[in-house]
């Protein structure tokens, strides 16, 4: 299959033919084996706080959701979880939370990052790789987090279409600000990840095709995409998605096309995809995903990290078995950086 262009992408989305999906998965798989092999990199996910100063209309953590019980893990809890990750061979972790509201919380995170970096041996290659996903911050704040030792950052665009972005965020959250943040992260030197939700009210296949071209144009290093799953206590849950009737299969198609367009990026099999269907992990891998994020957040806090309804949690051992049975290898004791980042920066 040649590289898909805009019209081809729309045709693939619209097709209900199983043969089209199977062919797409086969070429995505071939592309993945040739460019990045069969390894799957784990990131131990620590959801260290569900406090959020933003009000995204789709998310259960939004500030105005007063039904949610809020929590903050303390410094010792977070560092202990990172140590557990390290001992399990998860050499990269991801620290995620709601939007950070104060400089004091940024400084708290800086302190945590430094302590986690100290956990590995003195050899830089042995230390823990840290991905952050804590939302929009200033250039200086991102710089502080980089200098502390974090080196990857996930900030989803949610939709690359400015009108759709505006429809799912309050007026105080701007499309341009999000772009500025992505630019700042790249400029500082982070491996930059972004992504979108699939199946949003008001979203159509044209939007998704444009999202894929947006990722390509922005030369991103990492991609995280998942189906939109309504959370009952959010404003967007009252609006019905119209055009995209099958967000699960559409997400799988998006991932496979993304792999063809961007052969050497890191791409996650998202928890949302796995939450939607028991086969979400396997299908995500078949569509070209090479990253998984086993959740390390203590069980008592998990129900409160409710971005959306019915989030799935798979223990590491089960993840490993399923990955192996599908013909891939869970790569323990490796950072698993984005090959694209190294190529983009001219690093051998
Ligand atoms: N506050 C940070 C990180 C936590 S939210 C941030 O916003 O970047 C992480 C991701 O969860 C978001 O980027 C969004 O894409 C996803 N998410 C939030 N609500 C969701 C929902 N209802 N369905 C699916 N994904 C959702
Ligand atoms: Fe907060 Fe992130 Fe949810 Fe938006 S998506 S409300 S920033 S946690």
Structure characterization notes:
This protein is α/β, with parallel strands linked by helices. Helix 3 packs parallel to helix 4 and helix 9 packs parallel to helix 11. The radius of gyration is 19 Å and the shape is globular. Iron/sulfur cluster binds next to loops.
Give the averaged pLDDT, no decimals: 95
Tell me the radius of gyration: 19 Å
Distance between the termini: 30 Å
Share of helix, binned: 40-55%
The strands making up the biggest β-sheet line up spatially as 2-3-4-5-6-8-10
Which terms would index this structure?
348 residues; alpha/beta; seven-stranded parallel beta sheet; three-stranded parallel beta sheet; globular; binds S-adenosyl-L-homocysteine; binds iron/sulfur cluster
